[in-house]
């Protein structure tokens, strides 16, 4: 609420100005809006359009979509894409299951721990991925020697299964924490969590019921934004996957780009559009449910 | 639906260094409406939350019909609650909000709907079932919250300042309606409020709390007319503090001798507590006081008088008697001959106008 207060006098100023001045001001605002939009569009669209032209313009044959068609027949495309999507889904589920109950618990019963949780969840932002992956690979190497005699030996082997490297999910959960924390914190701040929980408890609801029927439905926007930030992160993460020796989609793109210049750019454009599409689906799903409820 | 007896036994709860409840003992008889009244921080809401199960006392117990429920989780208690802030589930429409508890208990859909419709009828919103909370006014939201609290036919109804966010007119209308509902359902109701007018007008019993302890409990008229302590006297309604002098079981004040009720402090110099409506004012050129201000309140007029020895006091009188008592006029006054409370002498001070809520 506090930031709104100083905005009131500022908003009142144009209303108090004479009509002619207001009109001029409105036009200026419109013009500036257009300028900013055009500048931003130029910045984002120029590389995209030039890339696109590069992929469809063959110096010999003129316009061709061969580069795009090749993607789908290239070796490892489907496999790496499915792997990335699988990793993204698993990461989203795990990171939400970890953070949401923790954040609720802190909000409801230990508000003084909130800064601690916030710092912990923000830490991954300041750790460079290269340091992070160096740590992970050290642990993975060290693990088998020390855990050979324990049941954990099987676990440490299993998480490195190349078909579905769970170790990447663990790493991505850590990397996604800051974004998920921010999204959920904003979502929880928008509802009166304590009163809603107490009202539901008063109606006889058990804790799981409160979480599923009261918190989650009222937290859709926060959950949707947490999910698609995580999705975007997983679809674009290269360092950790590459250095641990797995081949999800981003690593595959880099691998394939060495052999065919036009195709590597085409793959980049394709992955960009694909990610956009997924985010669009996710965000519209979030808003549609919200307005439909 | 019938009410349960609620007992607080030696309830104690501290938050860090703050003592919210300091050995609260109170019994609420079945089917009555009791108002927990007190200034903010007196522990009234904490006491209520102990009944709902949202707060666990450090010591003492809460009993429902003689059964200790202190350790029963909140979702297994037989108490419906209406909160101070709007507490409807924003994602559910009014029907589903009211039927939430029934759904938790897996009551069949048809029965749920019938019961929700019946409750909405009861709170005067039969046509609002399909609306969402954000489409309702504050008063309507609290009505729905009341319906939701009653849906499971609880034996205790807990009201945590449910009217404090509403505007004056809605507040009065809704409190009358709550009282009507409570009487017809015969449900034991605990109503937390800091508004003494609200407490006096709807409750069977008023319990005045101060610093986590019970100061006095009694029928509204009793608490108002025979306050047990100076604190109650000044918190409930408006009180004048006039300098007086003790003489045996009587006190000499403003040239009159009045019987003393309640405890007396050790010193003969005391403050005498007098209600504005027990000050009888007459216009008189040779009166011992002068009218400072006069505020018109419709049926009555409240005058602020200053006596020649510098004491200021408030007096309420019917509006038609006040025509000749404009500010600046001299007036005579007399106190109604009835027992008064006395407190230790404080410094000479303007009349205590209790709480802001008094006006």
From TrEMBL, chain A:
Primary location class: membrane
Localization in the cell: Cell inner membrane; Cell membrane
GO biological process terms, alphabetically, are: transmembrane transport
Looking at the record, the residues that make up the ABC transmembrane type-1 domain are 81-282
Coiled-coil region(s) at which residues? none
- One Pfam family cited in the UniProt record for this chain: BPD_transp_1
Ranges annotated as spanning the membrane: 31-56, 76-104, 116-143, 163-181, 221-241, 261-282
The membrane topology noted for this protein in its Swiss-Prot or TrEMBL record is: Multi-pass membrane protein
SUPFAM superfamilies to which the protein is assigned, alphabetical: MetI-like
Record's Gene Ontology CC terms?
A: plasma membrane
- Give UniProt keywords alphabetically: Cell inner membrane, Cell membrane, Membrane, Transmembrane, Transmembrane helix, Transport
Family according to the record: Belongs to the binding-protein-dependent transport system permease family.
Q: What is this protein called?
A: ABC transporter permease
TrEMBL record, chain B:
Indicate yes or no for the key word Transferase.
no
Name the InterPro entries for this protein.
Answer: AAA+_ATPase, ABC_SmlMolc_Importer, ABC_transporter-like_ATP-bd, ABC_transporter-like_CS, Mo/tungstate-bd_C_term_dom, P-loop_NTPase, Transp-assoc_OB_typ2
Classification via Gene3D superfamilies: 2.40.50.100, P-loop containing nucleotide triphosphate hydrolases
- Looking at its record, which EC class is this enzyme? translocase
Residue ranges annotated for the ABC transporter domain, each copy included: 6-236
Tell me the PANTHER family matching this sequence. SPERMIDINE/PUTRESCINE IMPORT ATP-BINDING PROTEIN POTA, SPERMIDINE_PUTRESCINE IMPORT ATP-BINDING PROTEIN POTA
By what name is this protein known?
Answer: ABC-type quaternary amine transporter
């Amino acid at each position: 609420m506090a930031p709104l207060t100083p905005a009131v006098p500022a908003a009142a100023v144009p209303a108090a100005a004479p009509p002619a001045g207001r009109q001029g001001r409105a036009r200026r605002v419109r013009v500036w809006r257009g300028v900013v939009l055009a500048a931003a569009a130029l910045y984002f669209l120029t590389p995209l359009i030039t890339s696109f032209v590069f992929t469809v313009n063959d110096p010999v044959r003129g316009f061709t979509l061969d580069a795009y068609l090749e993607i789908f027949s290239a070796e490892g495309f489907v496999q790496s894409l499915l792997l990335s999507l699988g990793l993204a889904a698993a990461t989203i589920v795990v990171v939400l299951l970890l953070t949401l109950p923790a954040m609720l618990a802190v909000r409801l019963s230990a508000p003084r721990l909130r800064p601690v949780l916030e710092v912990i969840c923000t830490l991954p932002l300041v750790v460079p991925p290269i340091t992070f992956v160096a740590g992970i690979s050290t642990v993975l190497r060290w693990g088998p020697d020390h855990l050979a005699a324990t049941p954990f030996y099987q676990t440490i082997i299993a998480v490195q299964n190349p078909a579905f490297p769970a170790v990447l999910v663990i790493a991505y959960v850590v990397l996604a924490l800051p974004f998920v924390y921010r999204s959920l914190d904003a979502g929880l701040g928008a509802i009166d969590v304590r009163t809603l929980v107490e009202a539901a408890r008063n109606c006889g609801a058990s804790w799981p019921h409160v979480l599923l029927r009261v918190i989650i439905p009222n937290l859709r926007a926060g959950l949707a934004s947490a999910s698609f930030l995580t999705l975007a992160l997983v679809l674009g993460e290269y360092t950790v996957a590459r250095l641990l020796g797995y081949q999800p989609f981003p690593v595959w793109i880099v691998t394939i780009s060495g052999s065919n210049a036009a195709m590597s750019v085409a793959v980049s454009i394709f992955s960009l559009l694909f990610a956009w599409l997924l985010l669009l689906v996710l965000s519209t799903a979030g808003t549609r449910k919200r307005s439909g409820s | 639906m019938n009410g349960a007896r609620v007992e607080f036994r030696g309830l104690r709860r501290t938050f860090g260094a703050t003592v919210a409840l300091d050995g609260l003992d109170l019994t609420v008889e079945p089917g009555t409406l009791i108002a927990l009244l007190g200034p903010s921080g007196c522990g009234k809401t904490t006491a209520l939350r102990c009944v709902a199960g949202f707060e666990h006392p450090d010591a003492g117990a809460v009993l429902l019909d003689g059964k200790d429920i202190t350790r029963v989780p909140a979702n297994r208690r037989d108490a419906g609650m209406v909160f101070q802030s709007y507490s409807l589930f924003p994602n559910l429409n009014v029907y589903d909000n009211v039927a939430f508890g029934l759904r938790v208990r897996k009551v069949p859909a048809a029965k749920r709907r019938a019961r929700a419709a019946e409750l909405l009828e009861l709170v005067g919103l039969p046509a609002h079932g399909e609306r969402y909370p954000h489409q309702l006014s504050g008063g309507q939201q609290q009505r729905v919250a009341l319906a939701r609290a009653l849906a499971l036919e609880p034996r205790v109804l807990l009201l945590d300042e449910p009217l404090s966010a509403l505007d004056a007119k809605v507040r009065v209308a809704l409190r009358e309606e709550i009282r009507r509902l409570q009487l017809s359902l015969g449900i034991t109701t605990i109503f937390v409020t800091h508004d003494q007018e609200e407490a006096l007008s709807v409750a069977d019993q008023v319990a005045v709390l101060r610093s986590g302890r019970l100061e006095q409990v009694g029928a509204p008229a009793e608490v108002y007319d025979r306050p047990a302590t100076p604190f109650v006297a000044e918190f409930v309604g408006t009180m004048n503090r006039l300098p007086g002098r003790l003489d045996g079981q009587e006190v000499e004040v403003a040239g009159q001798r009045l019987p003393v009720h309640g405890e007396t402090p050790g010193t003969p110099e005391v403050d005498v507590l007098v209600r504005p409506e027990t000050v009888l004012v007459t216009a008189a050129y040779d009166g011992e006081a002068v009218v400072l201000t006069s505020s018109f309140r419709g049926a009555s007029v409240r005058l602020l008088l200053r006596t020649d020895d510098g004491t200021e006091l408030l007096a309420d009188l019917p509006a038609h008697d006040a025509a000749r008592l404009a500010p600046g006029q001299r007036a005579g006054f007399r106190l109604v001959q009835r027992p008064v409370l006395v407190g230790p002498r404080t410094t000479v001070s303007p009349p205590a106008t209790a709480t802001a809520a008094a006006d």
